[in-house]
């Protein structure tokens, strides 16, 4: 017991004294999560302002107030005055500026990325059909979104005009709505939250790093420098040594889980029951699978320099193609195969299912079976190939 | 009675790596309370032998008798009684001296206090330093400290002073001698003949997996039957002159720069040599006279130098 | 001087290319990310038409053939009928369809799977355009207001097929290769070599320092160029995309980009004393740059404070410059020249400062 404790303490001390380890293991997963939530979490609009130029016809006293261009103008003015104005910043021409001059200037700004959209309202006679030009810049995502938003505003407007003109009554119009399906039938969850979707993925990601990076890195570096050899010239048992390191990894992983959960709870307002036995089972299982994979790596790759490189080369595809950060079920071709044989894919599906965030696209049996095959395969190969000695000699 | 005197004995020990016979059936024993040295060039099989005795490698054949008990291999029970200094010593970073001592002491059933060890290896003022910040000599003393932590019956020191500067080396020799005085049995491997000569009670000379000679350093040197060595520079010697010398002194050794002649009677041999040189009109530069050492023993036995 | 320069270049190049980590970070990592993100983006953007499920409830008032007519006109949709809501939702959950259209009493309801964050906005837009079309036909609505989308044309090159996010990935990855190639060199040579005493040994030889520094800069170029060709070739073979590359700008930009990243590495060495901490800092910065430079995700999607952060990262400018030069976005010669020139001058100054400041000998 004393030996296990001191191996555990030594690794803990070493880790705590190295600020870079702390960054990579504890801070980095939080950064990744934050970036992904900010980008995909549906909170985009809150941070986005569409800069839109409105090129209206020259206002003449004679033009009737209820001409379509005038109506459109009124609508945009009311948008500007409303709550939604923070999404939009409208630009209009100066009093003494000519319309064509303004249009030219604004189009240039659109090209240079200073505007997301230029809306041109033509000069028309009363009763004529109005053709509105929406100028956008197809290379820019924001510009594409702005064009969609403005198009749908104008479509609504068209409907309203039809009603006003008496072409149709409001009841006769086809009522269009959209909704998100409830994705867990058993859960009484109101909304899908991307942050919640992400939390198990980030937890699994940090476990994968623990198993493949920390565990492998520590052992391979100690093996290469003959430190392990020195340990085993004492009565220290291999099982004691690993228990010590495992203890450290479990502590580290628990800290990671707490940090990730706490961070997501505070900043992204998630609500997850992470203490469900099923989820705890998946966490433990994932950690063991990750460590078994680490052993496999240590057994196959002997040279320390190669170990570092191979580890990196394995972690990225495993994480990104394992569906930790995005759904990968709709991938096709060879790359989908990389997802289908990836134990992480099944583990993250199982975790999300267990938390009631998202139903597993793969059968529950496979969620256990595929990682288990990897785990046992790794253990069997490692037990033949693993070596304590530098350079892998036995 | 003799049995009681033996700390460790091996009989016909064998170990191969593939087709290479690293240890080809050697036998020896280490007496309690002595410093026992396995001397030989790199690749002689010293480290393989010592690592089998440390329990890091398994033998292919032969017998190991550990303090009177025949064992198949050195297992945990024996490791409790062994102190080890490996050829290369590294420790994990960001760990302090006292912490690493504490950790190693937790590996053993019985252990000495860290403050005792720190005192012995004269690192008391470094106990809060990180291991990676110690000097080479200090790190090596720490490694010896770790070897002592379980108050072992026998200490294995594999090339303890390789890579150290002369001052650090002398300091370490002092430490090893102190350990002997304290009654420890010490098993040493080295390829420095000076180290073997200064420290050892008994020396086994090993080459190509075999023991080629043994005895106390004095005995080994005496057995050469030569009292003195005359050494001089080879520079100005023509091949013909060397041939002639070889006829006169069959035991003559030539290296790239030096010629050594082993003689019993110094004064007559020296006169003879100088006369010969005068006749042949060759100059003898850098003439030195010294006592023979273990290196000379090794050269005599194998025809090559320890560091060749 | 020339001979020293050539010899140094050769030695430094070989030592760099023989390092496994170089191969990984400069060649393999951008390639891996290309496979990963390339498949993610191309998978959701262009591969197959979206699958629409249609459920006709008992109260449905819209005629089936009218609905089919409208949907059939939309090339990017295929559809099938489902017998119940439950079946439809189950298929959505299992990714066997993209949207479910429920036809009711004078109403259309579209249901989506919310986990498909990448696809949903586009799907929703599709849904509304279908509804609008049916409204127009069914109720003989007048189109008083009509919209015409006008895309501003690029001055020099037309963007290749496919979505912009997908295409801008490739210049971004080439920029990443340049970053990996250039970023670590100054740290390695002026801190690590110094610690190891290699610089001291060199200073003891009658070496021309300028020749050495020039050789150092040159030695990274083969790796940068290899990485660039790997990405270009792989993008063509695997994803079938080709770029309208302005080669006259492209090749010099590969060199300049690498030097700019070296300058950034030089900046890092000014703040860190030991090789270990400088390496760590450089790799942390590289990772952060990857996320905040718009390589994988558009910068515009980030909150404004992160957008301002990206302005301080040289990789942002590198990726943007390469996007312009490769015809993915519009070439703005003036801005490009200004940004690139400014960064290049700054980088050269930083490299000179570090080279001069370094005493070439460990303490």
Written overview of the protein:
Chain A has about 400 residues and is α/β, with parallel strands linked by helices. Chain A has 14 helices and five strands. In chain A, strands 2-1-3-4 form a four-stranded mixed sheet, with helices on both faces. By secondary structure, chain B is of the alpha/beta class. Chain B has twelve helices and 14 strands. In chain B, the strands form three sheets. Chain B has a six-stranded mixed sheet with strand order 6-7-8-3-9-10, sandwiched between helices. In chain B, strands 2-1-4-5 form a four-stranded antiparallel sheet. In chain B, strands 12-13-11-14 form a four-stranded antiparallel sheet. In chain B, strand 9 and strand 10 form a beta hairpin. The mean pLDDT of chain B is about 85. About 0% of the residues of chain C have low confidence.
Key phrases:
heterotrimer; A: alpha/beta; 4-stranded mixed sheet; C: 363 residues
What does the secondary structure layout of this molecule look like, with pairings?
The complex is a heterotrimer of chains A (394), B (308) and C (363).
Chain A: H1 2-17, H2 19-40, H3 44-47, E1 50-55, H4 68-81, E2 88-91, H5 99-111, E3 117-120, E4 130-136, H6 141-164, E5 175-180, H7 194-224, H8 227-231, H9 238-268, H10 277-300, H11 304-320, H12 334-340, H13 343-355, H14 364-385
Parallel strand pairs in A: 1-2, 1-3
Antiparallel strand pairs in A: 3-4
Helix pairs in contact in A: 1-9, 2-7, 2-9, 7-9, 7-10, 7-11, 7-13, 10-13, 10-14, 13-14
Chain B: H1 2-5, E1 6-17, E2 20-31, E3 35-39, H2 46-54, E4 61-66, E5 69-71, H3 76-79, E6 82-85, H4 97-106, H5 114-120, H6 136-148, E7 154-158, H7 166-181, E8 185-190, H8 193-199, E9 202-207, E10 210-215, H9 217-223, E11 228-233, H10 239-248, E12 253-254, E13 258-263, H11 266-280, E14 288-290, H12 294-302
Parallel strand pairs in B: 3-8, 3-9, 6-7, 7-8
Antiparallel strand pairs in B: 1-2, 1-4, 4-5, 9-10, 11-13, 11-14, 12-13
Helix pairs in contact in B: 6-7
Chain C: H1 2-17, H2 20-45, E1 50-56, H3 64-73, E2 77-81, H4 85-93, E3 99-104, E4 107-112, H5 120-138, E5 145-151, H6 164-196, H7 198-204, H8 209-219, H9 221-239, H10 247-271, H11 275-292, H12 304-310, H13 314-325, H14 333-357
Parallel strand pairs in C: 1-2, 1-3
Antiparallel strand pairs in C: 3-4
Helix pairs in contact in C: 1-8, 2-6, 2-9, 3-5, 6-9, 6-10, 6-11, 6-13, 10-13, 10-14, 13-14
